[in-house]
Amino acid sequence: MTAEAGGRRPSRTTADPARLAAYDVLRAVRTEDAYANLVLPQVLAKHRLSGRDAAFATELASGTLRRQGTYDAVVDACLDRGRVQGRIRDVLRLGTHQLLSMRVGTHAAVSATVDLARTRTGPRSAGLVNAVLRKVAAHDLATWVARVAPDATADPVGHAAVAHSHPRWVVEELALALGPRRDELERLLVADNASPSVVLVARPGRAEVAELPGEPTVLSPYGVVLPGGDPGSVPAVAEGRAGVQDEGSQLVALALAAAPVDGEDGRWLDLCAGPGGKAALLAALAAQAGSSLVAAERQPHRAALVARALAGADGVTGILTADGTTPAWRPGTFDRVLVDAPCSGLGALRRRPESRWRRQPGDVEDLVPLQRSLLASALDSVRRGGVVLYATCSPVVAETVGVLEAVLAERPDARLEPVPLDLPDAEGPLPGTVQLWPHRHATDAMFLGLVRRV
Predict the structure, then answer these.
(1) Could you tell me which residue ranges the SAM-dependent MTase RsmB/NOP-type domain spans (predicted)?
(2) 8 A C-beta contact, residue 399 and residue 392
(3) pLDDT tens per residue, range 389-399
(4) Inside any domain, residue 120
(5) Is residue 235 part of a domain?
(6) How far is Cα 245 from Cα 240, in angstroms, rounded to an integer?
(7) Between 161 and which of 168, 284, 432, 440 could a Cys-Cys bridge form, CB atoms 3.0 to 4.6 Å apart?
(8) 428 annotated to a ligand binding site
(9) What span, in angstroms and rounded, lies between the C-alpha atoms of 182 and 255?
(10) Is 323 marked within a binding site?
């Protein structure tokens, strides 16, 4: 093993494989901008982990990333002077998570993390890691939050940011999105830090819900909650007849398929199809309706993922590598169009724990013009009487209400209509729109708005 650039060659002291795997995930996220959910299976395979060891490594890595903001405040309070960064910071975060949020005994957590430090950062760091973690172990999480977070009365947003490990600006955006139900903010932040269930979808006409293991989902008729294990070991998933898909994402495809259209209904379009999960469900629904789907994706590598997701599916007439803002088809070609717009992803923080630390307020400002352009292009692509479903996995007002209102103000040929889903407690910020929430619906915070071209 080679040392990280600029660091010393690690000691030959061996840490246990599960903690090594969790560290490797954190390092990949920090140095390579990797996504934890994508790199984790590779790391588990590299360390030959399965069963309880794989579950421990998964919770250790994902939980540490979710609570990173809180743990950094605790670690900083335990340092005698200065700050530590890089590899040692990763090790201290992992040790702090074990001490404050996992059922790991103090001695085991400290000694195993010291071994990890010797292995990954060299023997000279072991004393510092040992000293800091023994200070961390002196209090539980609630006591530490009371010590390091701003006063909840004087600065409620700052307190929530540290207590629930979200950047301050994200807390502000989520509070704004909740609107008159801002009192639910703490429940939402808590839900963002909970490990999400793995949800499977049976693609209609290709798989039956009954052949998937688990309990049926509450909101989607095609979903089940997997009780545990590797989704890839489920035969229908391995064969591409079913897939892993959050219930909120399933509802996006169902909403577009259920919307009434005037006249013919044979041509459907997924304008931003990568990586292909919604397109696969849409294709199955289109085939059942006697219609066909075209899936478009601008980025070639994501278009390849779409092709893989749609392999063997009926009802697909084209998979295009194309920019949705400059359509490669004639205006008015389609009867139904889905715009699952690129967004900040702040509604999917349960599944992408590192996203909250990567995103910046300027990212939203940069995305909004693209979102408006895609929605306008979708309205050009749909015929009169057809429908466009605009969806984001973000509840941020600028990406939802702001985009819809701006485009509708410029399009006298477009009209907002109710999303055809009967969902409990899911009223969106505009009449007829839908806003799902992790703390209310156990889904990602998907936003759905239906627009008809008139």
Answers:
(1) 174-454
(2) yes
(3) 999 999 999 99
(4) yes
(5) no
(6) 13
(7) 168
(8) no
(9) 27
(10) yes
Confidence of residue 13 (pLDDT cuts 50, 70, 90): low
Q: Are residues 397 and 264 in the same domain?
A: yes
Domain shared by 85 and 183, yes or no: no
Q: Look up the pTM and report it.
A: 0.93
Distances in Å between the alpha carbon of 445 and those of 7, 26, 53, 282?
41, 25, 31, 20
User: For residues 88 and 392, what is the distance between their CA atoms, to the nearest angstrom?
Assistant: 37
Instruction: Show the domain range for 22.
Output: 17-141
Task: List all residues 6 or more positions away from 22 whose beta carbon is below 8 Å from its beta carbon.
Answer: 57, 60, 61, 64, 94
Specify whether the backbone of 28 is left (phi greater than 0), alpha (psi in -120 to 50) or beta. Answer: alpha
Kindly list the catalytic residues. Answer: 393
In a domain, 7, yes or no: no
Question: Tokens 């999400």 appear where?
Answer: 196
Q: Is 276 annotated as a binding residue?
A: yes
Give the chain's domain count: 3
Is 278 marked as a binding-site residue? yes
Same structural domain for residues 337 and 414?
Answer: yes
Residue 109 Cα distances to 80, 106, 136, 145, 276, angstroms: 21, 5, 11, 20, 40
Q: pLDDT digit string (tens) for 315-350?
A: 899 999 999 999 999 999 999 999 999 999 999 999
Q: Which residues, 6 or more positions from 142, have their beta carbon under 8 angstroms from its beta carbon?
A: none
- Classify residue 306: in a domain, yes or no: yes
pLDDT of 404 strictly over 80: yes
Amino acid letter, residue 442? A
